[in-house]
Protein 1
Amino acid sequence: MTIRIEASDEMCRARVTGEMTIYHAAEMKGELLLCLERGAEVEIDLSEVGEIDTAGFQLLLLAKREAATAGKPLRLVAHSPATLEVLDLFNMASYFGDPVMMPRASR
């Protein structure tokens, strides 16, 4: 798992690569909270997340809550199939408020 941070005064972008799992949760929490401190807006790119478990999902919930508390917009973008599956499983896509393209259900 890696998180690449690109920050300016206006925006902090975090690009997550690999697994968002309990094995990386502590490290990821620190990185995401640091990103929240850096920019007026926060964007988390999930395009390269290959696996996400409940700990990873809880980190996204934490980031959203902390951003709201700080009055900063937070967007999840470029959802990977793994992140879409978790958002669908927990029926939480609307909570984050980001446009997502849910795959068609297989018949």
Protein 2
Amino acid sequence: MFSLIDILNISAAWLGAITGVVSLIYSLKVNRVKLSISKFHKKRMNEYSCYQYSFVLSNQSNSNVVIKNIQLFDKNGKEIFDNGFNPAIALPEKKSDPFGLISSTQTFFNVEWYSTPFEDEIELNPYSFEKLSYYLNEPPHTIKVKTNRQIHYLSKSKSFHPVFNKAK
């Protein structure tokens, strides 16, 4: 029937095929891009200003990824955009004291109050992050991230459903 050499050849072929498949699966799993969104915060400068929604996009994998697009959607599925709120305009007008001096505890240069929406491609290096913030009229229900590599099964995009907490 089969000689010893035939059995050894078939065994070696099967062993090689199994090793190849396991190596392919392992390399796909190790090189898969893992993105996460965290630190969801909602805050406002004062009672006259819009809410600023911020979050951190993190690359938790050992390979670079280029973020091609970030879209925010409301609960009806309609895309929403930064409303262009300028924090310098929202500060109440300062009045002088009896001596003609103007005192202020707020500053125009606090960069935390200015929005930093997604505007152009972002390259995230391994284990790095990018903080994004938007002034919106309503909270986003879904955040959709598109990349240059597969991040969700066979798709290059992934949706996140944030829960924003008020910042302290």
